[in-house]
Each structure stands twice: as C-alpha cells, then as structure tokens.
Amino acid sequence: MAETTHPVPGGPGAQDSGDPVPVSRARLVVRRFLRHRLATVSLVLFVLLVLLAFVGGALWHYGYDTFTPDNSQPPSAAHPFGTDATGYDLFAQVLRGTQRSIEIALFVAAASGIFGSVWGAAAGLYGGRVDTLMMRVADLVLIFPAIAVAAVLANNVATGGQGWLLIGVVLAALTWPYVARLVRGLVLSLREREFIAAARTFGAGSWRIIFRHILPNAMGTIVVAVTIIVAVAILAETALSFIGFGVRAPDTSLGLLVSQNQSAVSTRPWLFYFPGLFIVVIALCVNFIGDGLRDAFDNTRSRSRT
Amino acid sequence: MSPTTHQTTTAEVLSVRDLTVEFPDERGRVQAVRGVSWSLREGEVLGVVGESGCGKSATALAVMGLLPPGARMGGSVRFRDRELAGLGDRGMSSVRGRSVAMVFQDPLSSLNPVYSVGFQVAEAVRAHHPGTSRDDAVERAVHLLELVGIPNARDRVGDYPHEFSGGMRQRVVIAIAMANDPDVIIADEPTTALDVTIQAQVLDALRTARAETGAAAVLITHDLGVVAGQADRVVVMYAGKVVESGTADEVFYRPRMPYTLGLLGSLPRLDGRFGARLTPIAGTPPALDRPIPGCAFAPRCPLARERCLTEEPELREVDGHLTACHFAEELVDKRPEDVFVPVVAPVALTAERPVRTEGPLLRATGLVKHYPVRGGGFFRRQVAELHAVCDVSFSLSAGETLGLVGESGSGKSTIAKLLMSLEEPTAGRVELDGAAVRGRKHARDLQIVFQDPMGSLDPRMTAADLVAEPLRINGLAKQDARTRALELLASVGLGRGRSERYPHEFSGGQRQRIGIARALALRPRVLILDEPVSALDVSVQADVINLLEDLQDALGLSYLFIAHDLSVVRHIADRVAVLYLGRVVEVGERDAVFDHPSHPYTQALISAVPLPDPRKERVRERILLSGDVPSPVDPPSGCRFRTRCPRFLGALTDAERSLCVEEVPGLVERGQGHPVACHFGGPR
User: Fold this and answer.
1) Which of A56, A78, B215, B515 has the fewest CB atoms found within 10 Å of its own CB?
2) From A6, A17, A202, residue closest to B497, measured CB to CB
3) Residues on chain A touching B522 (C-beta within 8 angstroms)
4) pLDDT at B10
5) DSSP 3-state of A185
C-alpha cells in the first residue's frame, strides 16, 4: 500500500516486481479512508449512534411518549438520562430526537448535495448566459434569511408525522446554493485543465468528461461541503425547534429537547446536557468522516495529517 | 562581450565553506545541500549549474539568509572578512542589497504588484541610504531603469509591474539589485522563464549591471549555454554537492566527472553534432532524504564500480581543476558517446497501418484564429480581437518531422489546438490525407502530446487507466484495453510494476512517457508534440527525444514538433517553420533555415541561442532585438516584425520602410533556396 501513497521519484529503489493486480478504485478509497484514524473512529461512533437511535429506541422499555410515574428523577438505573417534570423518560426522548435529527440532516445533505452539484456543474460547463442565469437564481436563494424563511414555511405546513420531511425539504432548498457555487467554481477551473483537453483529443464525450474526470477531481470538495451541510442541518433543525417552528410535541428532536429544558440547566442539568452532548457528538463525527472521505478520494495527498 | 578573465590572485569577496542545508519533509529531513564549498573572487562571474533539485537555489538562499523557517543550515558563508552564517535576519538586512544583492527567477513574484516600479527601485535606494530625499531616490531610479534598458524610463517609473512584460520586469529587478552598488549579485535562474531573444536582452542588462557596479556575480542556472557565455568559472552541482569545479574552458572542454560529460552529451546543440544521437544519463537523481554512502551519481554512472557505492569521492585536482570522481583519469579524451552508451528504447510496437501516402499527409491551408477580447461590463461586449494565428499554411509528409518554432505569443500552441479541433478556426482548413478534418472524426489519426506532463494527466487515474482510456472510448473491451495499455507503457520504457501508480508518483520524464504512450494508443499517423520536452531537465529531455526518434523509426510516424528551443528543433526536425506573431516568417529544410536564415527575425533568434561552448560564445556576434513582441490585439500593419526589425530600424531607406509598413510580405523564395516572408530578406 505504501507505494501508492509515497511520491517516489522513480529512482533507484523504486522498483517492485511485476505488474500488480489492479485494485478497484472503490477499494482504494476504502483503504485510504481506514488509514485516517479519527475518521474511522468517528464512522464507527456514528454508526453506533444510528443503531442506538433506531434499533435501541424500539427496544427500550419506555417509548418517547410514555408517561412514567417518576418525574424529575436524576439519572438512575431505571432512567439512564433521568426524567423530566412530566414524567417522560429522557433516554427514550433523546433516542427519538436523535432519529429525527439524523433523518433530517442526512436528507438535507443528500438533497442539497445532489441538486447543488448538478446545478453547479451544469452552470460551470455550459458557461456564458446559462451560467449567469443559473448562478443569479442561486444568489437569489442565498439572500433569504434561511432561518426566518424556514420558520415561516415550516409553521404553515408542518403538521402530522411527516413534518420532519418538510423541514428537510425546506432546509435543503435553502442550502443547495452553497454546494452549487462551490461546484461551479471547481468545474470552471477543472474545465481549463490540460487533461480535460487531452480527453477531448481522443474523443471523450461530455458525459464521460464529467463523470470520469471532473467529478472524481471535485469529489473531495463536494464531500467536505456536504458534511458541513450535515452539521449545519442538524444545527438548523435544532435552532428551528428551539424557536418553536421545527418538530412539534408530542414528537421530539434534539433541538426541541434542548429548548424545552433550557430553563432546567441549573436545577436538573441532565435534561439539558444529554441532548446537547448528542448534538455535539453527531456534528463532530460527521465532520471528521468528511475529512476522511476527502483524503480518501484524493490520491495525490499523501498521509500527512492524521 | 566576452567574460573578463581575472587571474587567481584577486581577493575573494564571497566564500562558502562546507555549507549544508536541510529542509523538513513529510518523511523526515531532506538534505538539500550536503557540504558545498566555493569562492567568488572580485569582479568574476561564477556559474553554478545543475539540474532541478541539486541544491543550487538552496545554496543561494542560504547565502542570503533567506531560507524558510524550519530549514537548518550548517557551515560558513563569508563576505570579505565577515561571517554571514548565523547573523540573523536583522544582521543580514544590512548585508542584503548593499553587499550582496539577489535576482530571482520569477520577476512577477519578486516585485510587489501594488507599488509602482519607480517606487520599488527608490525604496531599495532608500533602504540603505535613509538620508536620500524622495526626489533624489526617484531620480536615481530613473537612471537605473535607463541603464538596464527600460525605454522611456522617465515616463514609466509610475507604472505598475503588471504593465511590464516578463523581460522588462526582470530588468526592473536587476535595477533594484544594482540600486545600492552591491559587491556581489546572485542571479538565480534569471532568464529561465523568458524567451530566447528576451533572455539575450536580460543577460545584457545583467552585464551592464556588473560593469556599472563592478560587482562579482554568481549565476545559477540549469542552462549550460548561458553559463558558457557568461561565466569565468563554473561549479557543477549534483545531489547537493559540488562534483566539478574549474574555469569554464576546463569544465566544458575537459570534463573529468562523468556527470558533467553526460550533461554535455545529452544537450542538443545548434552547432555541429546534430543528427547524432543524444546520450542521455539513465535514471533520475537520488532522493536526498537519507544519507548516501558512496558517490551520489554512482547509480546512474556507466563507470561506477564497487568502490563508488561505498566510498564517497572527495573533490580532488585532476588535470588542473577539481572533480569528485574516483576514476576521473579514465575520462581523458573521452567523448560523451564513448562513456554513455545510448540506450535503445524498448520499442516493440509495430506499425499496423499503412503509412505511405501520395503527397502531404497533413496539410493546413490559410489557418486564421481570432479570439474576441471582451469588455468587463455586464454584457461583456466584444471590444477587440486578438489575432493569434494569421494565415498560416504548412504541410507534413508521412514519416517527416516539421519543427514549428516561435517565442511566446507566436501562436504555436493555438495552431496545435486548431489542428486537434480543440478550437474552431476563424478561417482556413486542415486536411488529413486530402480529407478535411472536422470535429473529432480524425481522432485516431491525429494525436497530441502536451507540454506539461503533470497537467495533461488526470491526477486521479493510474498510468494503465490513463493509457487505456482512449482505447476504452473507442470501443475496446476493458481487458483488451488494459493489455494493450501495458504493452504501450512497456514500449515507452515504463514496464514492470509501475502501471498502477498515479501521475504524481512518477518523475517528470516518466510522466511525459505516459503522455506519449497515451497518444500512441489509437495508432495515430501524426503526432503533434506541443513543447514535449521543455518542462524537463536536460538529461531527461535527451531520453525523451531519443524515445521519440525511436518511435518514429519503428512506427513511421509524422511529427509536428512545436518548440521554442531551437537546439532541440535543429536536432529532431527535418523541416522548420519559424513563426512570429501568428505568421510564418520563414520555412524550409532544417539546415537551409539554420545555416542560411534569410529573415531578420530568424537570424536574431538563432544568434540569441546560447551555445554550451565558451570559446564560440566569446566570439559570437549577437543580434540584440529591441523591445518586446507587440500585442497580438493590435499587431503592426504590414510586416509584423518591423517594430523590432534591425533592418527596418537600420539600413532601409524611407521608401523601403513604407513598403514594410504598408504591405504584408508574402512567403517568397529570395535567393536563399527557401521561402521567407520579408521584403528585404537575405543574408545578414
């Protein structure tokens, strides 16, 4: 593996024997990702969190909307995260909230990542008037104060069990221009690179150039942008729920929990800190995973920072 | 002007003893300089030559105390009686500029873009003479700018660096270096980024600077020709060490280190020896991240034996000068080709397509390319036209190499793009075998090798994938494409286990081989080589040139060889076309053009190329062209060369001049046996 990461200037000592079996690109990406220790740890932690939230939530003997006879209990064996004044089990609520937050965040990241990339790549590739028009539309979206718009839209439509999906759509609709601008810039600079001209000289079509040459080279940046959006979406959902326009009771989210329990920081701190901790851990994990992915996609970067 | 020959009795101004420089690196520390000693005497020019990565620039930076943070330096640097090593930034400030001045390679980044050039020269004056009034300083700046040959210096002191061309900027940098009458000027690759006629101007300015200040100079360069013409003494560096040192004549005519001999042998020359095969040095310089027990050159040296691998050779005197080789005596009266046996490239490909055709294979007729120049406003209206290529015609026969020569802005690369259909011509047509080339229909027959081997290879693909890609696009199954790609890589000398590496893991020469293998994948008949060796070091360049020659012999390819380096073109081309500002000014058989140039531009171009031969350099007469290439947005009327033409500015009568101004000269044979586009073309 070392030979694919070290820039060996082909000098003496750079020979190895025979043609190695070609390793598929996906395999290489996985291998490089695993070498990024922090990212690997974060990925494991994130997967555990997701399992805990979705599987653990179903198995836990209290539901997020079950009243228990205990109220305002500090953490104990029966209630690991304690209970609130109404008697809800906070552990069950945090798991439910984590589900909601992760669902929204991943949805927003995927939707705005894909839409933004396509929009930006198209603008960059077509250039000229099309580019100007498309980017002005993106700018138009950017000038809306995201939280205010989200609050108004979510307030008007967010009802019933699918409310989280709507919040996701609204947040995605407000964040895609960031990805689009980034991808457009990348495409504009990549388009001028000589290897694109080289590909054209032997007859590569536009689609091949986009998927074979431009996207792999832009992947690192897109991945980082998308992971930032994951974190942003979690925080945005938190903020929306915090000001009362996000997920509604009896359903709950991490943001809503923090907001409901902010007044209890000094008297029953567990109510505030456990959901807060989950928010921080999820956001950090996602960012580190993004770092790892960027390095994994970029074979020109030798293993420098880990 | 010939270099002054000083006697060895003159005092030393600057001396370097056992200098070492280490840089931190991802993999530990790199020993960039491993014990270098040399001395510079009053008024002399010391040439420091070596390929990239040999430690020449690191030495210069260490002398100036400009090493980046993290770098470690050992040994001693003495300026007259003063020790400079360990002086610290503050102490060095009084030395820099005043005692030792430096000229860097890139004049754009060594000038501050937000200040006018006059201000920057004046600032240099005031830095060491704080008492100077602003007006006096500006006055001195004007004087200095005039000295280095900036036309209308007084009007231009207020201009900013971006308003000057590269050559003019480098002269400003030289003016700054002269500002405080230094005792030593260190010039680090001062002309590397410049065209050859501009290089001649800058070298001239550097000479003026030395004459004016009486300074001694250290001239650091990879170009043996530049050193031959400028230096009194020469130091050859390899892998962070001095491997040979002596007077220019001794080093050039009696090299006693195989590396020096190899460098001379791998250099294509404008005079003599062309046609002969170049003798490249195999391999690449060693990585300096671990100690090298023996001679650093041993792995590449044909003379190397057991002792060279274990015992480091010290610099010792052989035949009157210093060399670091255990077996230097064996080099007496040896020519490069006696020592470096030219490697026969492992070309195993066979031509599987008919190569013989009647008449020219590739023909370009009346090619014109204008680019719109757009304004900055919202609608980006077209405000002017850039005339990149103007009525260019040429033809290329099967198996032939046509050299397309020109300086930057001559339109050579645009022509390559037009031929490859990467750009639509404004007018004119390209025919291959009599049929018009349109779009990518002729992708298979016409392929290109780009100048920058790093930029033209997708960094995210392995060598095998890169070479296989054109085959895959043209419908070959994955496995077949791979087999063929490995075959192609092997044929350019990249076999055995390197196929799964990424471009950045190869050296420059190897990357260019990948580019060549990829261009050959579709079995083209014509290869367009757009400056294929100009980004490579001399020894590597020779290797690639030999490979191209072998491939041409084996496959019957036709080459359109685009280059600014006349020596390389003279070596490889059968016919030559000289371009100036988008027009062909002279075309003909190689030897006819080089031996009997008829166009004043061709004559100036040829005379400006430095030869790696000190004696010839001393007696050569240079035609110095004035000024810069005019902007292609508003090219001169009539003959485009007239604004710089020594004939137009000199001997012609007014009546003759008006012909140059009014009428575009056609390509006509004028008594020299080949066509030339000059109303008054002929021998000098």
Assistant:
1) A78
2) A17
3) 202
4) 66
5) helix
- Chain A residues touching B510 at Cβ < 8 A: 10
Residue A40 sits in which domain range?
29-53+93-297
Q: Do B362-589 and B13-248 fall under one CATH topology? A: yes
Count of structural domains, chain A: 1
Give the separation between CA B110 and CA B511, rounded to whole angstroms: 30
Tell me how crowded residue B225 is: count the other CB atoms within 10 A of its CB: 20
Note whether B473 contacts A217, CB cutoff 8 Å.
no
**CATH number among 1.10.1670.10, 3.40.50.300, 1.10.10.10, 3.40.50.10860, domain B362-589:** 3.40.50.300
Residue B500 with chain A: CB contacts under 8 Å: 4, 19-20, 22-23
User: Does the residue A129 lie in any domain?
Assistant: yes
In a domain, A201, yes or no: yes
* Interface list for B 489-548 with A (CB within 8 A): 496-502, 504-507, 510, 515, 518, 521-522
From the CB of residue A250, how many other CB atoms can be counted at a distance below 10 Å? Answer: 9
Out of A18, A197, A202, closest to residue B497 by CB: A18
Say which of B286, B450, B498 has its CB closest to residue A198: B450
- Nearest CB among A6, A11, A212 relative to B286 is that of A11
Which residues in chain B touch residue A135, judged by CB atoms under 8 angstroms apart? none
Residues from A contacting B (CB-CB < 8 Å) are 3-4, 6-12, 15-20, 22-23, 193-195, 197-204, 208, 212-213, 216-217, 299-300, 302, 304
Query: Quick check: is A6 in a domain?
Result: no
- A3 Cβ neighbours under 8 A, 6+ residues apart: A16, B501, B505
Max intra-chain CA distance, chain A? 76
**Dist CA B421 CA B402 (whole Å):** 19
Are B457 and A195 an interchain contact pair (Cβ–Cβ within 8 Å)?
Answer: yes
Domain CATH code at residue A113: 1.10.3720.10
pTM of structure: 0.81
Residue B81 has pLDDT above 50, yes or no: yes
User: For testing the chain B interface, which of A201, A206, A207, A213 should be mutated: the one with the most B CBs within 10 Å?
Assistant: A201
Q: A289, A231 in Cβ contact below 8 A?
A: no
Domain ranges of chain B: 13-248, 254-339, 362-589, 600-676
Q: How is domain B13-248 classified at the CATH fold level?
A: Rossmann fold (3.40.50)
Tell me whether residues A202 and B522 touch, CB distance under 8 A: yes
∠ CA B325-B330-B332, nearest 5°, is 105
Q: How far apart are CA A107 and CA A22, in angstroms?
A: 35
Residue B363 near residue B395 (C-beta atoms within 8 A): yes
Over chain A, what is the mean pLDDT? 78
B506 CB neighbours in chain A (<8 A) are 9-10
pLDDT in tens, A229-274: 888 888 788 777 777 777 776 778 887 788 777 777 777 777 788 8
Report if residue A3 sits inside a domain.
Answer: no
For the ranges A11-25, A136-150, B165-179, B433-447, which has the lowest average pLDDT?
A11-25
d(CA B146, CA B149): 5
The 3-state DSSP class for residue B215 equals coil
- Chain centroid, CA B58 distance in Å: 20
Helix, strand or coil for residue B410?
coil
Instruction: Please tell me the distance from the alpha carbon of residue B430 to that of residue B434, in angstroms, as a whole number.
Output: 9
CA-CA distances (angstroms) from residue A297 to A77, B511, B598? 45, 21, 56
Burial class (CB in 10 A: 0-12, 13-18, 19+), B484: middle
The torsion angle over the Cα atoms of residues B201, B207, B209 and B214, rounded to 10 degrees, is: 180
